[in-house]
Amino acid sequence: MKNLLLTLCCVMFISISYAQSNKDIANVYIKRANNVIEESIDFKEALVLFEKAMKYMDTVTSPDVASLGARIYFELENYKEAQKYSKQFFLLSKNKKSEQYLNQLELFVTINEEIELQLEEEKRLEQERLLKEKELRRIDSLKTVWKKNADNLSIKVDSIYNFNKNSYALYTQNGKFGILSDVGEIIVEAAEYDFGVNFEGYILLQNKKNNPTKIYYYNTYKNTGTTLPNPSEFNSISTNFGQVMLPRSNGRLVTYPNNSAAPMVFDLNENKIVKVANKEDLLDKLEKNDIIRKYNRDDEVKIDKEWYVFGGHLGGGIHPLYPEGKDGNKHTVNAYLFSVDGSVLPTNANYQYLGAFYNSKIEALKAGKRVWLSQSGKKVDALNDKLANYEGNSKIVKIEDGVYQILKEGKIVKGKESLEKMVDFLRKFD
Fold it and tell me: How confident is the model at residue 59 (pLDDT cuts 50, 70, 90)?
């Protein structure tokens, strides 16, 4: 029993000593905090010292310490902590008439006013935040609407070629060619034609690149188009158009149908096959001018010692010549007669196909390579397509692979529909 009492006394003595030691340490920090305020008015440093003191106190039991805490936190604008210590002061202070009490009361009122102002400001900021969030949601909603509209006005194709001077271009989708305008209007869907060419104001679409059986043409001068007549309408045993040459700006197109001893010359402006009006008069004139030696009723002409089948007129006095007889090559051009000087260009040594002559030049192909010849068959500079350069204000913009938009005068356009830029669209709803 004596040992138990001795142990309890020791514990009590150590606890009292430890508590007394913590209080002393806390008082040291409190004193330092007061000194810092009096000497340098450094409330930040005073707060550091005050918080160290609080680590050694279970609770504030002194009005002076509570008053110090309230003042420090007030000066540092931590009004809620200042209010807590101020309330603790009033719990501990018994003399309501003392100067310290009255000063603390004045500070307490000021703290409460600042808290009210702070709460009002927090409320104002919260309302401002909510309004801003609402506005952002509204703007996001409008942006979603704009993006949906922009997507509807997008042109979903594989590629768009350059517009010509008359504002039309080729485009491709899934390996097919089509035609569209510079406002995004689809003129011909890319669904049937495997090949397309845009040259000198005319656009050709072919169901096959080689030996097509169907050709659609679009006249960008008149904004009209249709398909060429079936090759059998030109020659009853022809089944395809054979080699198709470039259309010329006068509207003439030359093709070389199979099983035919003459090229098909077509007027894209008049939508009709062009044939020599009076072949006998033409042959008679060529004979009188010693361009040919003679001709017969079978449209065969003799030049020097060779007989040919006369194949019509390509313009500029240039005539295709086919071999005489019934051999297997009778439907293949043998030579070209340039009547301006009587020269003959055999195809086996020169050019296999000639197009329509216009504006001092004629297209010529040899082994797939294109060159340009003069009216006498001499090679000249390549033809400059004056319709190739677009002069409008539409701009093709690639959004991503397979998605394009056409911008015109600051708007996305597609046919008769248009959409302003996003910033202008949003501005309408301000």
Answer: confident
The reply to whether 216 and 134 lie within a common domain is: no
Note whether 109 and 230 are same-domain residues: no
Query: How many domains, the chain?
Result: 2
Assigned domain for 394 exists: no
Distances (CA, A) of 375 to 77, 157, 160, 245, 353: 97, 42, 36, 17, 15
In tens, the pLDDT along 198-233 reads 999 999 999 999 999 999 999 999 999 999 999 999
Percent of the chain at pLDDT exceeding 90: 80
CA atoms within 13 A on the CB side of 139: 12
pLDDT at 299: 85
Return left, alpha or beta for 266; rule: phi > 0 is left, psi -120 to 50 is alpha, else beta: beta
Return d(Cα 394, Cα 408) in angstroms, integer: 4
Paired strand residues for 405? 397
Considering all CA atoms of the chain, what is the largest pairwise distance in Å, rounded to the nearest integer?
159
Q: How far apart are CA 418 and CA 404, in angstroms?
A: 14
Query: In which domain, by residue range, is 204 found?
Result: 192-380
What's the pLDDT score for residue 20?
63
Same domain, 340 and 252: yes
